[in-house]
Amino acid sequence: MTTAPVDLLPSTERALIHRLAVAQSEGRLPSLVAAVVRGGRIVWTGSRTSVDGHGPDADVQYRIGSITKTFTAVLVMRLRDEGLLDLDDPLEKHLPGTGVGEVTIAQLLSHSAGLAAETPAPWWERSSAALRPELSDVLGEDPFLHPVGRLHHYSNPGYTLLGSLVEAVRGVSWEEALQSEILDPLGLTRTSTQPVAPHAGGWAVHPWADALLPEPSEDLGIMAPAGQLWSTAADLCRFAVFLAEGDDRVLSAASVREMRTPSAPPEAGDWQGGYGLGVQLSRQDDHRTLSGHTGSLPGFVAGLWISVEDGIGAVALANATSGTAPAVAADLVRIVVEAEPKLPEPWRPLSEVDPALLELTGPWYWGTYAYGLRLSADGTVALEPLRGPGRAARFEARADGTWIGLNGYYKGEILRAVRRPDGSVSHLDLGSFAFTREPYGPDDAVPGGVDPEGWRGV
């Protein structure tokens, strides 16, 4: 998302404000503020409000609910990257005595630990944190609803456990770790655990009348890591850039990419969604995947979505208990992508040509499947089917002269060129599959051998 940004076209800005206006009007939202980030900076902000002559800007705080979970997940990933824990560690290793210690940290991050979605009654978002002073009060007597590790089931108590894990391993409060390890390095000066003026008030809108009711704003106490934060559209755009690119002061690009990688399957029948490690995933238009998170607490709804492929992110925040802010944020990304598609990077030749690698390019056959091997200027190689469906993948060079798969079926698999005693290439070995220069050539190293009579007619 750091390619050179340009301002949006007037027609694109008009489409964005129209989407915002429709959402505020039809959704009967007291206020709605949104922003779009492209190329690493905010390129558009807009707002609509029910108050004549006044509209919130991108510096007004709203409560962001479960977007807080992504911040908590970043803190956990930092502990992993520092070697203080492993994602496959059972919780009990670092936070003993919870009663659910057999679940792993990765399962908690991906909501696949089998825990209940909510705490025991009363409704935790609208009741005093004093009712739940301990983790046992959050988990209840029967915390498991599903087999551990078998399916995705969203769990607020699970992220409360992760916040307590951060405190146990780091030795400071979750809030202190959040401030020093994420907010300060990223310059998120308008993100806080308590509201700081200017901030919006939370409202409930009557479902059958144009009437308002103020919502209480409870301090969540021990549940804070699941949904406490207040933030602004501007701060969340900066956080969106971080989730797309990483920042070595907080987490590397590789670690945030790991967070965006699906870790838990979607619910049955909902193949448009998914969940990584503290990051929600949403499939749009059957070809674009958005990463981010949605959030809600009484009086507020929020959405943050990014399309890493297109280098675009959007945030939408509203001060109503129910509303379409998450969908609005996704729509803003779509509007910009469709109106101003990203220009491809210029083609550039290789800086140097390695004859040994050049020798490997061209057609290869796995059985009767035809593939082509191409060497790219970025140093990777791509193995792709020449016709019809097949298992395409890119590979990155390793120090020992082999190549490791970066995506698709062959992700993590090793590709190597097998040479004959005279140095010529016999075949490519890819995870035990032999790719040869001819389909079942008589002298090729094809497992099982080749019929000596060769190819024939009927």
From TrEMBL:
Q: Where do the Beta-lactamase-related domain residues begin and end? A: 25-333
**Tree of life domain:** Bacteria
For the keyword Metal-binding, the answer is no
A GO molecular-function annotation = hydrolase activity
Identify the residues that the record assigns to the DUF7586 domain, covering every copy. Answer: 353-437
Q: Which Pfam families match?
A: Beta-lactamase, DUF7586
* Keyword annotations of the record: Hydrolase
Record carries keyword Transport: no
What are the EC numbers? 3.-.-.-
Gene3D superfamilies noted in UniProt: DD-peptidase/beta-lactamase superfamily
Its recorded name reads: Serine hydrolase domain-containing protein
User: What is the scientific name of the source organism?
Assistant: Streptomyces noboritoensis
